[in-house]
């Protein structure tokens, strides 16, 4: 039956554990499609800001910070566009967030000319460099089921030479795959984005927001929710839930929270709904500074909560698979704010890439450094005379080529010195770094969702026998879709809401571009370049 046949929906409450995009999307679907009053919806967030990994903060004086940048794809992201086509933008409430993104990407299409560089030379990344053996391994991967792959690692499936091809460097630095990650996730990506396979090197299929994702997506979505009365409980860290088993299934009856000065218990009626983001890619993040290196944390609140409730409920997944090997799941990013734009201008000239055009990876870097110079301004409050760029490295525990210590031990200044070495402008230190701020961010779980896994390690969005608890985000199992995307989080939220409310509506299916003969033909041609 539909929600319109359930008058009691106005008397039910919904509780969201975590304030990331999955929870915000879930709250929006409850209001928009489920007709639940906004005042009946409660979002518990341990920080004083929503958005989770879709962040963006700071000012020109203290420096800006984005821990990561989300990329989008218009032929896919079905649930994301379904949501943001109905959320008004902050700049013009007569247009949706999606409308503003469309306009921005029409005016600023991605077309990377210098995707890979080595010792100052541009690499022709359109030549993927795959051998017959590599192509055979890719085809065999596509024909092997996830169940058969199990927890096989990428480096166990492909030979060492595959990990030295242009294709791998392009693939790994766009999606952040490491050789020890799950080859089953690579398989999912191949199916999901096969239509983009021929243009990975140019990134022409990638779409972006006008500003960082916090300003462009989170803020308008949060305002829409606040205007409808949704309650945001900041500074509330959910530490445990009372989940009572019975013959009819498991029911959440209480939620326990810690605030700065007290412990709170929230009673949950059996007819109420609980949505939990189990695990977070940015949990435990540590922020450094120009003269301070970030710490490396080993755990985070979302992981501890997931472990606590999964201990007695095996159908809730196996969080240790993802959370107990920080060495394999961490990497580091950095955000650079420049009042002195000499370094910014040098990057544009050195790479021959205009701002907003792409992602440049420096293959000679021991850290495997990459930089992204977004279209300016990248923050809504960014002055015209201030520039911002972002970068990251997949191997922060390796010693630098110029700075003789691991990136994980480096200050923001030392990270910039290492970058300047690869930009061949280290002879201009320190004047090129005058009036420049670099804020590093260490993220211990940023690729935890790629860890080798087996069926059951991720719980279903609504597990069997769960009466009022659903899981959201990157660690809830959704067939055929790919983690490390906004779409995965939004899809989990739509799935959870529609199923929990028994709505007579369908979640948009994952588009099967790989069944298009033209897509297959173009992918094969690209594999032989």
From TrEMBL:
InterPro entries: FAD/NAD-bd_sf (IPR036188), FHA_dom (IPR000253), Oleate_hydratase (IPR010354). It comes from the Archaea. Transmembrane segments: none annotated. GO terms for biological process: fatty acid metabolic process. GO terms for molecular function: FAD binding; oleate hydratase activity. Residues 232-287 form the FHA domain. SUPFAM superfamilies: FAD/NAD(P)-binding domain. PANTHER family: 67 KDA MYOSIN-CROSS-REACTIVE ANTIGEN FAMILY PROTEIN (AFU_ORTHOLOGUE AFUA_5G09970) (PTHR37417:SF2). This is Oleate hydratase. The lineage of its organism: Archaea, Methanobacteriati, Methanobacteriota, Stenosarchaea group, Halobacteria.
């Amino acid at each position: 039956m539909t929600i319109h046949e359930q008058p009691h929906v106005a008397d039910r409450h919904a509780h969201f554990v975590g304030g990331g995009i999955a929870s915000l999307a879930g709250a929006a679907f409850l209001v928009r499609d489920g007709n639940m009053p906004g005042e009946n919806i409660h979002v518990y967030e341990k920080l004083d800001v929503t958005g989770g990994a879709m962040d963006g903060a700071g000012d020109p004086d203290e420096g800006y910070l984005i821990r990561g940048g989300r990329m989008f794809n218009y032929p896919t992201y079905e649930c994301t566009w379904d949501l943001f086509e109905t959320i008004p933008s902050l700049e013009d409430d007569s247009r949706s967030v999606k409308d503003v993104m469309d306009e921005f990407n029409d005016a600023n299409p991605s077309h990377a000319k210098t995707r890979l560089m080595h010792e100052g030379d541009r690499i022709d990344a359109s030549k993927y460099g795959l051998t017959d053996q590599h192509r055979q391994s890719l085809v065999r991967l596509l024909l092997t089921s996830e169940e058969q792959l199990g927890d096989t690692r990428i480096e166990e499936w492909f030979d060492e030479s595959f990990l030295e091809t242009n294709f791998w460097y392009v693939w790994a630095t766009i999606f952040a795959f490491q050789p020890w990650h799950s080859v089953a996730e690579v398989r999912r990506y191949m199916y999901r984005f096969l239509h983009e396979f021929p243009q990975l090197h140019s990134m022409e299929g990638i779409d972006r927001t006008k500003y960082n994702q916090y300003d462009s997506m989170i803020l308008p979505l949060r305002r829409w929710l606040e205007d409808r009365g949704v309650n945001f409980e900041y500074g509330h860290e959910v530490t445990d839930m009372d989940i009572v088993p019975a013959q009819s299934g498991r029911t959440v009856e209480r939620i326990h929270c810690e605030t700065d000065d007290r412990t709170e218990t929230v009673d949950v009626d059996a007819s109420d709904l609980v949505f939990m983001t189990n695990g977070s890619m940015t949990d435990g993040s540590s922020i450094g500074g120009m003269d301070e290196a970030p710490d490396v944390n080993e755990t985070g609140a979302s992981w501890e909560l997931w472990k606590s409730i999964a201990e007695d409920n095996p159908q809730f997944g196996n969080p240790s698979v993802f959370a107990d090997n920080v060495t394999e799941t961490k990497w580091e990013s950095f955000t650079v704010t420049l009042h002195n734009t000499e370094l910014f201008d040098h990057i544009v000239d050195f790479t021959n890439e205009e701002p907003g055009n792409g992602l440049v990876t420096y293959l000679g870097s021991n850290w495997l450094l990459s930089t992204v110079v977004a279209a300016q301004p990248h923050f809504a409050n960014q002055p015209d005379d201030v520039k911002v760029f972002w970068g990251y490295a997949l191997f922060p525990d390796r010693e630098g080529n110029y700075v003789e210590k691991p990136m994980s031990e480096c200050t923001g200044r030392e990270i910039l010195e290492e970058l300047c070495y690869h930009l061949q402008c280290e002879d201009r230190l320190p004047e090129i770094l005058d009036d420049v701020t670099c804020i590093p961010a260490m993220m211990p779980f940023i690729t935890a969702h790629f860890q080798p896994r087996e069926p059951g390690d991720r719980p279903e969005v609504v597990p069997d026998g769960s009466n009022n608890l659903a899981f959201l985000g990157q660690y809830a199992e959704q067939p055929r879709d790919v983690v490390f995307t906004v779409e995965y989080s939004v899809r989990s939220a739509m799935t959870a809401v529609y199923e929990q409310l028994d709505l007579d509506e369908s979640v948009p299916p994952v588009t099967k571009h790989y069944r298009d003969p033209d897509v297959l033909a173009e992918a094969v041609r690209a594999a032989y370049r």
